[in-house]
Each structure stands twice: as structure tokens, then as C-alpha cells.
Design brief:
- The chain has 10 helices and no strands.
- It has one domain.
- The chain has about 300 residues and is an all-alpha fold.
- The model has no long low-confidence stretch (mean pLDDT about 80).
- Helix 4 packs antiparallel against helix 5, helix 4 packs parallel to helix 9 and helix 6 packs antiparallel against helix 8.
């Protein structure tokens, strides 16, 4: 009982509505300050007052400065993903899709500084990557809408007959424990990856370091999420053996794996893997909903 009480207290300190509001305001403030600092650095470089960013286009255009506050928005989205984990599996998966969509949009802002306006648009590598990302972001946004629609439609029309109230509460407690443990794990990953990036990548080649920063933290982040998804699947077996529930949770694991794989490749293959992950998750949820209505 004491251990449960301790874990409940930890959860209330890290993942309560009050804490979420404080984190939201803090990250918003940091994002605004970082945006202003990035703009200042861009104009200092433009007028020749600093020259430490000569090898990077990341400090050439004011549009690129939007990349920085977007990075902090992504940090808040990571927190929201953990926040919604005990509440709903499908909302937790939706947050994964929102995060990868924001990563693509953030990449668009960064790549705007590398565009070459020419009649040979489709022959220029950076311009083609920009086109792929624009189309990918649009399709992802629409698919997240469909995913959310299917999720909410199921919640309104279905009745869960596989779990009683005590099972539901016990499952929620287990998810709260997992969510509480994820906060320090992701803090460690963030500090470790960012510290390693600062000490190894930047001194050697700042241009290459800024190119690699788009995948910084998130490849490790989704690797941990795969483990979390597998644990959720295994724990769910104690509470339900319904085929469509098992397939849904297994499908979400595959979707997360595809997102993780997208960080290992560049160009159009990266976009294909991202789109494929969300399309697969959307299809899994759609079929799951059909099964749920049959059971009801």
C-alpha cells in the first residue's frame, strides 16, 4: 500500500493537470526567448558582427529561426504523450503521430534557408526534399484527423464488455507507474544526447552538427517508446484476450517501429516510412473499430 501511495504521489508531482499547465507556460516562455535569441544571432551574422556560423545556412534567414521554438514545442508534445499514456492508448498513439508531424514541419522551416529558386526545381536536391516534406506534412495532418475521428467515434458508440471496473482501475495504475518512470528516463536521454551533441558534433563541424540536430533525441525517444508499447501489449493480456484488441496493440507497435526506422534514412524513403507508419496505424484502428461494433 505504501509503494502504491508513493507512486501515486510521484505521479501527481510529475503528471497532474496543475503540473501540465506550469510546464506549458514555462516551455512557451523558453520558446519565445529562444526565438528572439536565434533572430539576434541571424542579424549579428548578417551584419558581420559574428562569424562562428559561416559554415551553416541555419543562421542566414529569419524564417529558419522558427525552427528553434518548434523544438521546444516538441519537448512539450513529448510531455503530453507521457501525460496521456494512462488515460488512453489511442490518444497516446495519436501523440506519437503528432510528434513526427511536428518534426517534419520543423524540418521544413530549417530547409527553407536552403531553397534555390530556379526553373530546375525538381532537379535540385534540397528543393525536392522540401517538396516531399510539404506534401508529407499535409497528408499526415489529414490522417491524424481521420485517426482522431475514428478514435472518438469508437468511444461514443462502443461499450467495453471485456473489463470490469476493478480491472480498468488496475490497468490505469500500471500505466501511471509506467508514465511516472518515463519522465526521468526521457530527462536522462535528453540531457545525455544533447550533452554529447554539444561536446562532439559542434566543435568538429557546426554545419554538419546542425544538419543532424533534426534527429537529435527523437531516434532514442522512439526506441524507448517501442519498449513501452511492447510492455503495454504484454500487460493487456492480463485483462483481455479479445483478438481485435491484441491485433490493435500489436499494430501500434509496428507503427512505432516504422517511425523509429525513419530516423535512420534520408530523403524520400524517410517520408515513405513516416507516411507508412501512420497509414498502417490508421488501418489497424479502422479494422479494430469494425470488430468492436460486431462484439457490441
Amino acid at each position: 500500500m505504501k509503494n502504491i501511495l508513493t507512486l501515486e504521489t510521484l505521479y501527481s508531482y510529475l503528471l497532474s493537470e496543475k503540473v501540465k499547465l506550469k510546464i506549458e507556460k514555462t516551455i512557451l516562455g523558453i520558446g519565445m526567448i529562444s526565438f528572439v535569441i536565434h533572430l539576434i544571432l541571424i542579424y549579428l551574422k548578417r551584419y558581420g558582427l559574428i562569424n562562428i556560423f559561416e559554415g551553416s545556412n541555419f543562421f542566414d534567414s529569419p524564417i529558419a529561426a522558427i525552427y528553434t521554438p518548434f523544438s521546444f514545442i516538441l519537448i512539450y508534445e513529448v510531455y503530453l504523450l507521457i501525460f496521456y499514456l494512462p488515460r488512453s492508448i489511442t490518444t497516446y498513439i495519436t501523440k506519437q503521430y503528432e510528434i513526427i508531424t511536428l518534426i517534419v514541419i520543423r524540418r521544413i522551416f530549417k530547409d527553407l534557408s536552403n531553397l534555390e529558386f530556379s526553373s530546375n526545381w525538381f532537379e535540385i536536391k534540397n528543393d525536392m526534399y522540401f517538396t516531399y516534406d510539404i506534401l508529407t506534412a499535409l497528408v499526415l495532418f489529414f490522417m491524424i484527423y481521420l485517426f482522431t475521428y475514428l478514435k472518438e467515434n469508437l468511444e461514443k458508440t462502443s461499450v467495453n464488455t471485456s473489463l470490469n471496473d476493478s480491472d480498468v482501475q488496475q490497468f490505469i495504475k500500471i500505466k501511471k507507474i509506467m508514465a511516472s518512470l518515463l519522465i526521468p528516463i526521457f530527462l536522462f536521454i535528453g540531457i545525455f544526447t544533447f550533452g554529447g551533441w554539444l561536446t562532439t558534433a559542434i566543435p568538429s563541424n557546426i554545419s554538419l552538427a546542425l544538419k543532424d540536430v533534426n534527429n537529435l533525441f527523437f531516434d532514442e525517444f522512439f526506441a524507448v517508446l517501442i519498449i513501452v508499447d511492447v510492455l503495454l501489449l504484454l500487460v493487456s493480456f492480463f485483462y483481455t484476450d479479445l483478438f481485435h484488441k491484441v491485433i490493435r496493440n500489436s499494430g501500434f507497435i509496428i507503427s512505432t517501429i516504422l517511425i523509429r526506422m525513419s530516423f535512420t534514412v534520408d530523403g524520400v524513403l524517410n517520408n515513405i516510412l513516416i507516411l507508412g507508419s501512420v497509414i498502417f496505424g490508421l488501418g489497424i484502428l479502422w479494422i479494430h473499430n469494425k470488430f468492436s461494433r460486431i462484439n457490441v
